[in-house]
Amino acid sequence: MLLLASATDWYCQRPGQSVPWRFHGPTARDKPFMHREVHILGSRGIPAAHSGFEYLAEHLALYLVRRGWKVTVYCQLAGSGEVYEDDWEGIRRVNIPVRNEGAAGTIFFDWKATLISARRDGTMLTLGYNTAIFGLVYRLLGKRNVINMDGIEYRRAKWGPLAKAWFYLNDWFGCWLGNHLVADHPEIKKHLSTRVSADKISMIPYGADAVSSASTAPLEELGLEPGTYCTVIARPVPENSILEIVSAFSRLDTSCKLVVLGDYRADNEYQRRVLAAAGDNVLFAGAIFDKQTVRSLRFHARFYIHGHTVGGTNPSLVEALAAGSAVLAQDNPFNRWVLADAGEFFSDALQCEQCLRDLLQNDARIAVLSDASVQRHKALFQWPAILSAYESLL
Hints:
Elements: H1 7-11, E1 37-41, H2 52-66, E2 70-78, E3 84-88, E4 91-98, H3 102-117, E5 123-127, H4 135-141, E6 145-148, H5 161-177, E7 180-183, H6 186-192, E8 201-203, H7 217-221, E9 229-233, H8 242-250, E10 257-261, H9 269-277, E11 282-286, H10 291-299, E12 304-306, H11 315-322, E13 327-330, H12 333-339, E14 344-346, H13 349-361, H14 363-380, H15 383-393
Parallel strand pairs: 1-2, 1-5, 2-4, 5-6, 6-7, 7-8, 9-10, 10-11, 12-13, 13-14
Antiparallel strand pairs: 3-4
């Protein structure tokens, strides 16, 4: 399964073809189509600081600029003021200040970015479908819009009924209004294929840079040593199985620590339950966005625990593979495809506890899983193949 001739072979199929295709780079036939223009929308902007979409936007924008494309990225700024443009690494950034926080601010930003980009030439690449209804503007003006449809957002337990209805409707709007769709996982493509023809969908997963070394200084600041802790890096919401993982780990008699990244507050009911379930061997390190710190914590951990139950190709899981981490993951089709044989799986808190107990005692199994993670990353989740697949599609 790990031996693929080319990662790009697996990622995409052109409409009407039943066999994978391979991107070979520009040929003489392609010359009239070079120096295209693309607008990247839907992320908070670049340089990346938070989400997977930001890192995709940054990697893809830099790649396309080096390939001769004219690239514009729309960036959300906190505060008020006029929209302004600047240059970052040869990429045009349209900076849009937004006063409101949360969903209202994001919707305003997406609407403003849509109106600005619609007046310009080029293809739109929209990352996410949360405001896909705005794509009607592009349709009316005859603009091309490629939408990365992200995960199945309306299935997430953290959202209330109104938010779920909004996401459900925009899932449909994205399928209808997008000229072409990108799914980052075979299960997402299968889901989208219930709405539109499979020929309208290309499967291109998320990528990560390989990590072969990392400083131990960030560990020392947290009182940790390499190999003496496990990590959980996820939003503190029910669908990420944080409560099950923390409860299971807290029942173990071990000197190994569980390091949980994220902002946990006592005024949030779910997060309060997680905090209450934690034993002395659980360390809540807070919301850490510094790249080098997260890289070090991931690279030097004994293993990584991934509790996500919904979504497609999760960036945090791919980054664990890239760091050569042994992985224990919640058992579902999304994680199963990403990991293949590069992981152990649990379905509930009791099974999680047993898996944790086994992995904490079995150094040989950790070594096998770590090597499998490296091979899985090399096979499917390296940026060069992923970015060339995006360029070929655009």
